Amino acid sequence: MDFDDINVEIQNDIFTCRTSAFIVRDGKILFQKRKGDKVWALPGGKLKIMERAEDGVRREIKEELGCDFINLNLLSVTENFFEMNNKKAHQYIFNFSGELDTDIY
């Protein structure tokens, strides 16, 4: 975790903001799964302080896939409540649709 990620502990609870990319090609949705994770997820990651959600999802796709995320549209904002590392977590995810500027998939 970077120190400028929006991942804040408040009274022993966690608040975090993330972005995700909903990428569809030939009727298939791109998902990812990190080593050690039990679940699949849309590509994306934590927003940084003072970073626009659109810029954050572009940065995350560039870091994870090595290509640009173009023609973005904000699909939704999701609010989640869950437990993480024995702490209550409150999370917002900005979900974008778009395309990759490459034929890697």
Helix content: 10-25%
Distance between the termini: 28 Å
Uncertain runs are: none
Mean pLDDT: 93
Count of helices?
Answer: 1
User: In percent terms, what proportion of residues is strand?
Assistant: over 45%
- What summary fits the major beta sheet? 5 strands, mixed
Number of strands: 7
Radius of gyration: 14 Å
Q: Which structural class best describes the helix and strand composition?
A: mainly beta
Description of the structure:
- With 105 residues, the chain is mostly beta strands.
- It contains one helix and seven strands, in the order E-E-E-E-E-H-E-E.
- The strands form two sheets. Strands 1, 2, 5, 6 and 7 form a five-stranded mixed beta sheet that branches. Strands 3-4 form a two-stranded antiparallel sheet.
- The chain is globular.
